[in-house]
Amino acid sequence: MAHSPLKRILCTSSERFFVDDQIHDAFVAEFARRTRQLRVGDGMGMAEIGPLVSKAARDKVARLVQEAVEQGAQVVCGGRIPPDCPPGWFYEPTILTGVTPQMAIMREECFGPVAAICRVADFDEALQRANDSEFGLGASVFTTDLAEAMEAANRLESGMVWINNPLIDNDALPFSGSKMSGLGCELGRHGLNAFRRTKMVILDHQPRIHDWWLPRPDASFYPAEAAAPQ
Q1: How far apart, in whole angstroms, are the C-alpha atoms of residue 158 and residue 39?
Q2: What is the rounded average pLDDT for all residues in the chain?
Q3: What share of the chain is helix, strand, coil (3-state, %, to 5)?
Q4: What is the reported pLDDT for 37?
Q5: Which of 8, 11, 17, 3 is nearest to 176 (CA)?
Q6: Other CB atoms closer than 10 Å to residue 166's CB: what's the count?
Q7: Phi/psi at 80 (nearest 5 deg)?
Q8: Which of 105, 77, 109 is closest to 93 using CA atoms?
Q9: Burial (Cβ within 10 Å: 0-12, 13-18, ≥19) of residue 227
Q10: Which of 17, 25, 36, 89 has CA atoms 20 to 30 A from the CA of 172?
Q11: Is 204 among the domain residues?
Q12: Per-residue pLDDT for 197 more than 60?
């Protein structure tokens, strides 16, 4: 999460990761290798990770990480305030493994440079875990199976879904969330509808008296008697 004129904070950044058991260890190893290459700084030089917005924000991130560790999670990298940064509310990019759905870091919005990884048995468990949240802004899916990709897009309870290329943005596309992640929509045609005053007009080009208008004929009150032979 960056805080400088050249960078921005993304509310759609990935926080909870659900990784299939078959690739979990290889994924974590490569993820950690790339994460350790990230540079922390104030944005005046070469840096990808800037400070958080306030001390309270960093304290929350540190609390969530510490609680997860106390409950059995493992810190793969990061997990601390960097010792050699300029003044500011910095926190090292962090990867946690062994995370369980009951941990607060999986239930609360972290808004910090922390990736909490939960190992899952298969595709269905990944979707079930992903939907087990009161939030639902954006979700990212990585798969080489087109059928899985389309099923995930349909079943994920989020306003936006990215498949194999996260955080693509375009003002012509709607930006919206589900559950506790927003009300309504902005951007795109759907977002413009929020600024429109819609009027419904019904026109019958053949004006006539319809049989469902009041007063109703007596037979409509006792249809069974009306249908009985006299």
Answers
A1: 31
A2: 85
A3: 30, 15, 55
A4: 94
A5: 11
A6: 17
A7: -160, 170
A8: 77
A9: exposed
A10: 17
A11: no
A12: yes
pLDDT tens-place string over residues 181-191: 677 777 777 77
**DSSP class of 148:** H
**Distance separating alpha carbons of residues 30 and 193, to the nearest angstrom:** 44
Cβ–Cβ < 8 Å for 181, 159: yes
Which residues neighbour 195 within 8 Å (Cβ) at sequence distance 6 or greater? none
Which of 119-123, 175-179, 198-202 bottoms out in mean pLDDT, i.e. has the lowest?
Answer: 175-179
Domain range enclosing 74: 16-190
Rounded to an integer, the average pLDDT of 205-220 is 83
The structure tokens 């030089």 sit at: 45
Closest CA to 64 of 91, 34, 88: 91
Q: Quote the number of domains for the chain.
A: 1
- Distance, in Å, from the CA atom of 100 to the CA atom of 195, rounded to the nearest integer, reads 42
Tell me the three state secondary structure of residue 115: strand
- Greatest alpha-carbon pair distance for the chain in Å reads 100
Question: For residue 62, how many C-alpha atoms fall within 13 Å in the half-sphere facing its CB?
Answer: 14
What amino acid occupies position 35? T
CATH number at residue 162: 3.40.309.10
Asked if residue 229 belongs to a domain, the reply is no
**If you ran DSSP here, which 8-state letter would residue 36 be given?**
T
pTM of this prediction exceeds 0.90: no
Question: Do residues 165 and 157 lie in contact, with contact meaning Cβ atoms separated by under 8 Å?
Answer: no
DSSP label of 195: G
* pLDDT tens readout for residues 117-175: 999 999 999 999 999 888 767 889 999 999 999 999 999 888 888 899 887 777 777 77
